[in-house]
């Protein structure tokens, strides 16, 4: 057999939209961050948004009323269960919503998926998103970043949000960012306040950078890791959800 010279395989640019997940505890500002990204990039990128709530479509309604995107480009997934189940354990509803959006508004550049507010262990499956942002806020306490967990440690970007509130809650933002960077082995951290233009510009630059890498076929989706094993049931006992298990935990909604 004649010897063949291997032909270099060029990176194949993906044909669908870049899917970006936004996760983090309840109330840290995930929907507001998405509104900020839509305002900052809406003129240059074709955007779609998917929200996840347990029992409502409140986040989708908030984003529609914020007027940052045409209302039909914002879709709600009602998970009916703990948020992490729909972004990690069984991503079918979110994948279908993403594919619907991408088909209805073809071509889209970016689909942002907001997880329902969950605890520090919930992260997106790389089967659903290409990259993910984990959000904390200063009001949750300056020491949270140091506590680590899969999202804090290994999400593509960690946002320390609502830095404008830091003086009122006694948090040293520079210290919190340094703690976060140490917990992340130097992965990206942005200190954000929606009213601070420089911080919004930093977030915008990060999104454009990761999108460019995705389009060049150079981006590799990372898995920050699964939830810690746990077990829990809903209030009326009608739904039981379990993993191999240890500690119980709560979801606020
Ligand atoms: N001071 C301040 N408040 C903010 C900022 N971003 C968001 N908020 C406020 O924080 C609260 C929660 O914001 P949301 O965007 O709804 O938070 P969320 O993480 O989407 O909440 P859930 O989806 O319920 O988990 C709202 O009252 C926002 O107005 C910020 O940069 N600074
Ligand atoms: Mg929200």
**Helix count?**
9
**Overall radius of gyration:** 19 Å
The biggest sheet, with number of strands, parallel, antiparallel or mixed sense and barrel status, is:
7 strands, parallel
Query: Compounds present?
Result: guanosine-5'-triphosphate, magnesium ion
CATH class type: Alpha Beta
Polypeptide structure, described:
It holds the Pfam family cobW. Keywords: Chaperone, Cytoplasm, GTP-binding, Nickel insertion, Nucleotide-binding. Homodimer. UreD, UreF and UreG form a complex that acts as a GTP-hydrolysis-dependent molecular chaperone, activating the urease apoprotein by helping to assemble the nickel containing metallocenter of UreC. The UreE protein probably delivers the nickel. This protein is an alpha/beta fold and 253 residues long. It has one domain (18-218): Rossmann fold. Helix content is 33%, strand content 18%. It is built from nine helices and nine strands. The protein has helices spanning 30-41, 58-66, 83-89, 92-104, 144-147, 150-154, 166-169, 173-183, 197-215, and strands at 18-23, 47-53, 74-78, 110-114, 131-137, 157-161, 188-191, 231-233, 240-242. It has a seven-stranded parallel β-sheet, sandwiched between helices. Strands 8-9 form a two-stranded antiparallel sheet. β8 (231-233) and β9 (240-242) form a beta hairpin. α1 (30-41) packs parallel to α2 and α1 crosses α9 (197-215). It is globular and about 70 Å long. Residues 238-253 have low confidence and may be disordered.
